[in-house]
């Protein structure tokens, strides 16, 4: 329970730290007892293609963490005049999935293989058939099984397999654990037990029996914990790994490490049944919290969980705003060539607002936004296309809405599986990401496309590290038997204002008309992939 005595020197939850290892930035946020950010720090990093695998070096993990924390600590000192020495709770999150195997001595057996690698197609297909459960290529079990299939020598020596967030947590606390939402991206979770599905564990053991491997999945996978459970404490060695200056003291409570999908759910207050969130930027994914598990598996749908273990359906699309961004850069180049100066923010706002003036049929224009492959539509590569008919009406408004609709089209195909085949009900989607930066436009078009109300909150911009800090705060501040969704609604978001936009009949009709042309156009995209090299 939170101590209400504001004069007490050590109020629990007064300073809570969330750190997230994203694909391009390591971000740290320190929040106060009112869940407001009081200091932040960041460090840019990039993955590298090494020996055919996308990876980040483990040295970069620690140097990046230290740089992000130092910037946060310096900002804290600059704003308060105090040195940051004690923190009441800490949580780490990171890019989900991937492959980090270690031997009995704690040495890494391979470089970190990230979620971005698409080297596990054979394994993913075998596992999906074996388990009757969709196993995407990026999942940890797919990486592990591909290593088994490839007869990689290190497989026999695996003592522990984890994710990036799990690795950092282990080194800082000594605990080999994961939050259930993050664990669900390693191996399927049984919704009834909140642990790895033991029937599937047995099936996999039988599958690899002939390989004579000396471990079982239960031996090497991290222990699964739920949000709100204590997941260890910061050791002396761990404190120095975060803060080599020695200012940070040991003993801080840790919450279970989570994945970036889970922190997105928390940051948008979308952890209750029949709610969802959609993260819309370079790629796009929706997370829908289900009332019950799906009746069947679909290769277009990833099944994960909330940080408390509730079954959650993820529709993940590799492509979203990259094509729009490319056209925007072209327009900016033209503007600059004319000797004019327009900020990127104004350019995007103008283009998005112009899209609202488009004709009902978008002037019969069509585009496909695939810069990379798109599993939902069965394409291993992408070719961005823009198509117009001889009698099409090429205007800026029609052009822009065509590209926005194209970005939404694949997400729509995935969401339709949930709604049409599984009768999933979604009361509201909480949106976050750059797509919603222009007021109302992205919201309205997504609501029309998905036929679901779309809301955006002011706090959504705080992002994953803030969501991770909230999970850490929940671990030390929750009341007895308090649910995460109640903690978020009653304490964190009770004063938050959300702007909700409902789908319109005209907008739904226009997008349906677009989809009637988009799906046949995918045959053109497939031909372009085959013939345009």
UniProtKB/TrEMBL annotation:
Domain of life: Bacteria
Keywords: Kinase, Transferase
Record family assignment: Belongs to the FGGY kinase family.
Pfam families: FGGY_C, FGGY_N
One Gene Ontology term of the molecular function aspect: kinase activity
Domain Carbohydrate kinase FGGY N-terminal: 16-239
Protein name: Sugar (Pentulose or hexulose) kinase
Carbohydrate kinase FGGY C-terminal domain segment(s): 277-475
Organism encoding this protein: Alkalibacterium olivapovliticus
GO biological process: carbohydrate metabolic process
